[in-house]
Design brief:
The chain is of the alpha+beta class and 651 residues long. The chain folds into three domains: 151 residues, no CATH class; 157 residues, no CATH class; 195 residues, no CATH class. Helices cover 33% and strands 16% of the residues. It contains 22 helices and 20 strands. The chain has a nine-stranded mixed β-sheet. Strand 16 and strand 17 form a beta hairpin. Helix 11 packs across helix 14. The protein is globular, with a radius of gyration of 27 Å. It comes from Melanomma pulvis-pyrius CBS 109.77. This is HET-domain-containing protein. It holds the Pfam family Het-6_barrel.
C-alpha cells in the first residue's frame, strides 16, 4: 500500500511536540470483544493437556466457520515430527505443514480467555492480539499454512519435564516450520504504516522505483526517518533471547505489526541500510540506541547468525552470549537454553535418557527442575572442559543478582558493557571463525580443576596490585559533560601519578600519554577491531590544559567537532569505558576494569584466560571481580618476565 500525503501529514502531526511513540497497547482490542470472549468461555471446562509421546509435538488450527469478530477458537493436534516438513505451505499425503510464531509473551498480568478443543484456556493479552491478527491474515491468504506452533499453547508450561524435552527440540521445531511469523505487537498510529509501506515498496533498496513519490518522502527529515525506524526497532521482540534462535534457523520469515506484514528479508536489508543513521542514533537518542548495539545491530546480528547456520559455520556459545548481553528472558534459565540449540560447541539435550551421555564434555542438560544457579554453574564446567579454557570467567560482573560463586557468570545481571574477550560479530568475517582479540595468558601453564560446584583451582600469576582507582563512568547517556569530566579526571590521575616502580611500566611522559590513550580505547576501534598501539588517538583530550583553557570552552569545542575521525575516536572511547573504572597499579601500569574494583585488588593472569582478571583475596581464597585491560600485558608479555606462578583457589 503506497504512502499518501494524508499518511505523511498524520505522521508529522503526531510527532510534533511529542516523542512520537504512542504505540497501541492491549487496550486496542475492544472491551466489547474481550467481554464477548469471556461470556463465550464462561462455564466451559478448563483445558487439560494429553501427554506427548516420544517424537511428538502439538500444533494448533483455527476452528472454521466461526465469527471473524468473535472469540478465538482453536483445535490442538498431536503430530509426529517425522510428519512435518517445510518445503511448502500446504499439507499433503499425510504431511503436516505449520508456521511457528515468534513473539513476546508479555507480563502475563492481564489474561484473556480463549477456547481450545471446546475448553477454556487463558493466554496473555499480547498473545491474544497476535491470534486475532493471525486469524484475519490466514482468512485472506489461502496459501498460508493453517497450522501453527505457538509455545504458550503447544507446550504444557506447567510440566517441567515436558518443557525440558521440548526446549531441546526448539531448533528443530523452528527450522522445520514452513515459515516463522514474527509478531512485533500492535501498530503505532500514523507511523507503522509508513515503515511497512517503505519496506513493501523497497524504497530503501530500489531508489529508481517509479511508483514512489520521492518528493513526498523528502519532507521527512533524517531525524524523523530514524523515529520511524525506531518505532519498529525499539519493540520488546528485539530484546527477547529466544528470538535469536527462532529467526536464525527460519527458512523464511514474515514480520507482522498490527495488520501490516513484510518479508523478513526486506526488514533485514533495511536494517543494514539503517547503519548509515548510526551517528544520528548515537548522539540523538536514548541510552540503548545511543550505544548503537541493541536495536539496529540486532538486525545485523540475526542476519549474520542466519548466514552462519545456512553455511554450516560454527557459532560459539560465548560469541552468542557476548553479542546478546542486552537481551532478556522471563525465566533465568532461558538465558542459556535459548542459545545452546544453535551453539556449535555445546550440545543441548533434554531429559530423554537415551540422549544423555555421562562421559560427554559437550552436553548441557536442559532441565527446568534445576535452578538457574545450577544451570549457570554447569555451563562453566561444560564450556571449560570442552575448550580446555577459562575464558568464560571473563564474563563475570560484580556484584551478582543470583547466589553464585564469584567465578560463575550471572547472565541475568544488567550488564551493558562491551566485553573485551571476543571480537564483535559485526567486525569478524560472518562466515569465519570466532576470534579472541587478546592473548594475555600466552606462555602460561594451563591447569585447572573444579572442586564440586563451589571452587576452582587454577594456576596463574599475581602480576600487580591496584593502587589508585578513579570513579567509574556510569553515565548512561551519549558523550556529554559527564563523559569529558570523567576523562579529565582519569587523565589527571594517569599523568599525575608517580610510582616507585615506574621504570617497569611507562617511563617517559610521552609514553604515559600514549598508554593512557591506549587504555581508554583498550586498543580497539569503535567496531571492536584491534589496532596498532601507535594509532590510538584522542588528541584533543590530551592537549587540554586547565591552566589556559576553561572546561566549558573545551567541552563546546568537543561537542562541535564533527570530523569523522574525531567522532570515531570518541565512540571507541565511550564504548570501552562505559561502566568501567580507570586504575593505576603499584608498578605504574594503566588499565580499565570493573566498577566494583577496590584499592588492593590484584591483577592476575590465569592459564587459559585470554584477558587479565581482577581478583580479590579473601583469607586464603580469591573472588573474581571481573575482566580488565592493562596496557602492555595483553599479548603474552607477562610470561616473558619470569614471574612466579601459583595456585589460585577461586571461591
Amino acid at each position: 500500500m503506497p504512502i499518501t500525503d494524508a499518511d505523511l501529514s498524520a505522521f508529522l502531526s503526531s510527532i510534533e511536540g511529542s516523542s512520537g511513540f504512542q504505540q497501541l497497547t492491549d487496550d486496542s482490542v475492544t472491551e466489547e470483544l474481550l467481554t464477548a470472549q469471556a461470556d463465550y468461555v464462561n462455564g466451559l471446562p478448563d483445558f487439560r493437556y494429553r501427554s506427548l509421546r516420544d517424537g511428538e509435538i502439538r500444533v494448533i488450527t483455527f476452528e472454521q466457520g466461526g465469527d471473524e469478530d468473535g472469540p478465538i477458537r482453536l483445535r490442538i493436534h498431536h503430530v509426529r515430527t517425522s510428519q512435518c516438513k517445510e518445503e511448502d505451505g500446504k499439507a499433503s499425503d499425510g504431511i503436516m505443514s505449520y508456521s511457528a510464531l515468534s513473539y513476546v509473551w508479555g507480563t502475563g498480568e492481564k489474561k484473556t480467555p480463549i477456547v481450545i478443543n471446546n475448553c477454556s484456556f487463558a493466554v496473555t493479552s499480547e498473545l491474544n492480539n497476535a491470534l486475532l491478527h493471525l486469524r484475519n491474515y490466514t482468512t485472506v491468504n489461502s496459501a498460508l499454512s493453517k497450522s501453527f506452533w505457538i509455545d504458550a499453547m503447544c507446550i504444557n508450561q506447567q510440566d517441567a519435564r515436558e518443557k525440558s524435552i521440548q526446549v531441546a527440540l526448539m531448533k528443530s521445531i523452528y527450522e522445520t516450520a514452513f515459515q516463522v511469523i514474527v509478531w512485533l505487537g500492535e501498530e503505532t498510529p500514523n507511523m507503522t504504516k509508513i515503515v511497512f509501506s517503505t519496506l513493501e515498496n523497497n524504497i530503501v533498496l530500489d531508489p529508481s522505483n517509479e511508483a514512489i513519490d520521492y518528493e513526498l518522502l523528502h519532507r521527512i527529515t533524517p531525524q524523523q526517518w530514524f523515529m520511524l525506524g525506531l518505532d519498529i526497532m525499539r519493540r520488546p521482540w528485539w530484546r527477547r533471547m529466544w528470538v535469536i534462535q527462532e529467526i536464525a534457523v527460519a527458512k523464511r520469515a514474515l514480520v507482522m505489526c498490527g495488520p501490516h506484514v513484510a518479508d523478513w528479508k526486506k526488514l533485514e536489508s533495511a536494517g543494514i541500510w539503517a547503519q548509515m543513521l548510526n551517528t544520528l542514533a548515537y548522539f540523538h537518542t536514548e541510552e540503548e540506541t545511543a550505544r548503537g548495539d541493541v536495536y539496529l545491530p540486532n538486525v545485523r546480528f540475526k542476519r549474520l547468525y542466519r548466514i552462519k547456520i545456512q553455511t554450516s559455520r560454527p557459532m560459539l556459545l560465548l560469541e552468542l552470549l557476548q553479542n546478546n548481553v542486552s537481551c532478556k528472558a522471563t525465566d533465568a534459565r532461558d538465558m542459556i537454553f535459548s542459545l545452546v540449540g544453535i551453539a556449535s560447541d555445546v550440545e543441548a539435550v533434554g531429559l530423554q535418557e537415551e540422549r544423555v551421555d555421562p562421559n560427554s564434555k559437550r552436553q548441557l542438560i536442559c532441565d527446568y527442575n534445576q535452578s538457574p544457579e545450577q544451570i549457570y554453574t554447569d555451563l562453566v564446567h561444560v564450556h571449560a572442559s570442552t575448550h580446555n579454557s577459562l575464558n568464560i570467567l571473563a564474563f563475570n560482573s560484580h556484584p551478582k543478582d543470583l547466589a553464585l560463586p564469584s567465578w560463575v557468570p550471572d547472565w541475568t545481571s544488567v550488564w551493558k558493557t562491551c566485553p573485551f574477550i571476543l571480537a564483535p560479530v559485526e567486525y569478524i568475517d560472518p562466515v569465519g571463525p570466532t576470534r579472541y582479540i587478546y592473548n594475555a595468558s600466552a606462555g602460561l601453564d594451563l591447569d585447572f580443576t573444579f572442586v564440586g560446584n563451589d571452587k576452582v583451582h587454577a594456576i596463574g600469576i599475581h602480576f600487580d596490585t591496584l593502587r589508585s582507582l578513579a570513579e567509574p563512568f556510569l553515565d548512561c547517556h551519549p558523550p556529554g559533560e559527564t563523559f569529558y569530566r570523567t576523562l579529565m579526571a582519569w587523565r589527571d590521575l594517569a599523568l599525575g601519578e608517580a610510582s616507585e616502580h615506574e621504570d617497569e611500566a611507562y617511563i617517559a611522559s610521552g609514553v604515559k600519554s600514549l598508554a593512557f590513550r591506549r587504555s581508554i580505547t583498550a586498543d580497539q576501534t569503535k567496531y571492536g577491531a584491534r589496532v596498532e598501539p601507535d594509532t590510538c588517538s584522542f588528541d584533543p583530550l590530551m592537549c587540554f590544559d586547565p591552566a589556559t583553557n576553561s572546561f566549558n570552552e573545551f567541552h563546546r569545542h568537543m561537542m562541535h567537532d564533527s570530523s569523522e575521525h574525531f567522532r570515531d575516536s570518541e565512540r571507541a572511547v565511550y564504548l570501552r569505558i562505559s561502566r568501567r573504572a580507570f586504575f593505576v597499579t603499584e608498578k605504574g601500569y594503566f588499565g580499565i576494569g570493573p566498577p566494583g574494583g577496590r584499592d588492593g585488588d590484584c591483577v592476575c593472569l590465569l592459564g587459559g584466560c585470554s584477558v587479565p582478571l581482577v581478583l580479590r583475596k579473601v583469607r586464603e581464597e580469591w573472588e573474581v571481580v571481573g575482566e580488565c585491560f592493562v596496557c602492555g600485558i595483553m599479548d603474552g608479555e607477562v610470561a616473558q618476565m619470569g614471574e612466579k606462578s601459583e595456585v589460585f583457589v577461586l571461591r
